[in-house]
Amino acid sequence: MSDADIAVVGGGIIGCLVAHEITRRDPRPRVALLDRDVVASGASRRSAGLHFPRGATERVRRLSTHSQAAYARLAAEDPTLPIHPLPLHMLAADPAHIERTYLTTARPTRAEQVPGGLVAVPPGTGVWTGQGCQYADVGALTEALATTLRPRLALREATRVTSVEPGPRDVTLHLSTGGTLTASRVVLAPGPWLADPAWEPLVRPLGARVKKIVALHVDRAPTEDDGVIVFEDEDAFLLPLRHRGHWLFSYTCQEWDVDPDTLDRGLSAADLTQAHACLSRYAPALAERTTSGRVFCDAYSPTCEPIVRTLDDGGRVVFAGAAGGSGYRLAPALAAETADLLHIAPEGTGHPDQPGPTGRRTAA
Question: Same domain for 104 and 77?
Answer without folding.
Answer: no
